[in-house]
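So, is this right?
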Amino acid sequence: MTAGLAQETVNKLLDFNQKLDIALLDNVVAAMYASSGQEQKMAQEVLTTLKEHPDAWTKVDTILEFSTNQQTKYYALQILESVIKTRWKVLPRNQCEGIKKYIVGLIIKTSSSPELMEKEKTYLNKLNLILVAILKREWPKNWESFIPDIIGASKTNESLCQNNMVILKLLSEEVFDFSSGQMTQTKAKHLKDSMCSQFSDVFTLCQYVLDNSNNAALVGATLDTLLKFLNWIPLGYIFETKLIQTLIMKFLTVPMFRNVSMKCLTEIAGVTVPHYDDKFIAMFNESMQQLETMLPVDTNIKDAYKKGSDAEQMFIQNLAMFFCAFLKEHGSLLEKQPSQEPLLKSLHYLLLISEVDEVEISKICLEYWNALAADLYRESPFSSTASPLFMSRPANSETPGRRKFYQPVLTKVRYIMISKMAKPEEV
């Protein structure tokens, strides 16, 4: 592609008075991805010039309809995304509405069958991101019906419902996780309030799917979406519904759902509210009962981790995070229970997990053991009257109750920590 030819190509593609030459555009995109050197540089310049043209977005529908090249379609969506992010507020209202309807139509068309959805995965994901970019600018003011619309559509078709769960998850991430620095605090608060006020119907849909669907992909997408919701939804949806029960009794023991279920339970375990103590105790006891059927207490977790698949290794890490989150926030609650067997078993599991040779897991466990030791020390510091090097208690003093309870466990922690220390160089 010579400089002259490149200019001619640009002129032809930018002549909006004639029909866009899709075959030519496909060739330029192919050159961009498949060639190298000067030809690739020229193709890049052509595509950049076209993308920056203020009217380029008006050709997106033609490109998406007639191009046979996935990379060209992706390029067209990038043009549209750029317009939404930089010029949405100056576009005439009717054009904004037209783009909205067009994107929604494409998403429905692409996600209405599981086969097409799988085949067009990357393309559909980009469409979803574009829809969320529009929502950040339109919802709720100019698109009040979005949540009712998406819930209504979800009831018509399972694969459509599955993709709608992905859209809701992306929207939740944009509003609650990534909003700082990307939008004003007022705008972020308005979106958060809108999400919370309309959440009831979303939750009903999630619960309906979890209770009734036998479609594994849909259930998985719903659990993934629910995981994103758990750090902001009103607590009543967590503790005053059967959500926790469903997660533990229905999904925790199913291999394909246990990782996301454990992550959901970990998110719930990190909540600190005093008036749901009974719910936390029940959740912990039921989780422990299910865990014992999946991972008996005499399992050599260190070996199991070494031989396990990626998903099984991830489960061990998620289990460590669950125990650490729960014991850190609610350990004192478990100490006060008539039976301390669940607490002792959880500490036993955590000791076994601490032995695993994996840096991330070791860090997770060590953070909890460090917090526990610090808590016990603060509660009853050692006196150091005898010698500054050997902190000790007077001979006649008794070991405090909590420290006595945790003493056997912390002794084992010391052995594990020493066994994992870097060996000194031989002299």
